[in-house]
Amino acid sequence: MSGTVAGFPGAGQLGKLGFGAAGIGNLYRAMPDAQATATVNAAWDSGVRYFDTAPHYGLGLSERRLGAVLREKPRDEFTVSTKVGRLLVPHPAGADATDDEGFDVPATSKRQWDFSESGIRRSIEESLERLGLDHVDIAYLHDPDVHDLAKGIREALPALEKLRAEGVVNAIGVGTNSAEAALECVEAADLDLVMLAGRYTLLEQPEVPLLDRCVSRRTGVVNVGVFNSGLLARPEVPEDAHYNYARAPRALVERARALAGVCRDFGVELPTAALQFSLRHPAVVNVTAGASSPEQIADNAARMKEPVPEELWAALAGVPG
């Protein structure tokens, strides 16, 4: 089977740290074009060569902004992924509509679920138009558990396997917040990658059967959401920290603070440990982190390179959950 991350062209360029482009799609707040451009360029300058986007992110804005920078770079020096499953279609209300899925953009279009082979092919073609590139390296089925997991397994994953066989994309996978849904997809199809959001992090350090199965299936895991919506993103955990896109429960705030205290004892800051922990499972081939400014990019890149004593991991594992 092809399902090893080393088995497709460009895989070696994923690197340890990737750039998640939801932020430049105006996630939660608008940013000027110049800031988006500077952020992507900062990622490139820091050595990042893997860039992930989706039509869902800002109703195509993320793809357009990312492509505007990447098409000026040597195409054989970077890997780009996008997602399928949601098409963008004209919004009946036109410019008077507002986006209701967290992106600060005019909703001149709306998202329409489509897991059919024709819809997936159309999604890839339209993403290429927005990106201004001749191909994407990786296509993920986006959030099948949110829409229709059974249909995703029955229709969308075979369509992606077909596109890979035709050379339309180099690698295929699934992107989801659900480790259970991802495991069903891994068992059902020959996937190169799983993009797993927020389910294998320092905060919870769970036993995730998906990860062990990915090792045996030779399916790489791209770990995202490793700061748990910001709860682990700062050295000192504030009262109003977020978890899973909402205000963090008090118990989780206290656990994060306990983790931060152990990190301090070893001379390490909490975000550094959060980033590096998320690479420790042998299934994980890359950690992709979002950023909305060049400063965030530089901070993530520096933290990924900081030395962390091996003894810290055992001490963190002993923090009561």
Textual characterization of the structure:
By secondary structure, this protein is α/β, with parallel strands linked by helices. It has a domain at 5-225: Alpha-Beta Barrel (TIM Barrel). Helix content is 38%, strand content 17%. It is built from eleven helices and twelve strands. It has helices at 33-45, 61-70, 117-131, 144-147, 149-166, 179-188, 209-217, 250-265, 270-277, 294-305, 311-317; strands at residues 17-20, 50-52, 79-84, 86-90, 109-113, 138-142, 171-176, 193-197, 220-224, 242-243, 246-247, 284-290. It has an eight-stranded parallel beta barrel with strand order 1-2-3-6-7-8-9-12, surrounded by five helices. The termini are far apart. Mean pLDDT is 93; it is low at 1-7.
Helix segment tally: 11
Report the CATH architecture of the domain at 5-225.
Answer: Alpha-Beta Barrel
CATH fold type of the domain at 5-225 = TIM Barrel
What Rg is obtained from the alpha carbons, in whole angstroms?
A: 19 Å
Give the end-to-end Cα distance, rounded to a whole number of Å.
Answer: 39 Å
Widest sheet: strand ordering? 1-2-3-6-7-8-9-12
Largest sheet features: 8 strands, parallel, barrel
Number of strands: 12
| Overall pLDDT level | 93
What's the CATH H-level superfamily name of the domain at 5-225? NADP-dependent oxidoreductase domain
SSE topology string: EHEHEEEHEHHEHEHEEEHHEHH
Regions with little confidence, pLDDT below 50 for 5+ residues: 1-7
Helix residue percentage: 25-40%
- Classification by helices and strands: alpha/beta
Portion in beta strands = 15-25%
Shape: globular
CATH class descriptor name of the domain at 5-225:
Alpha Beta
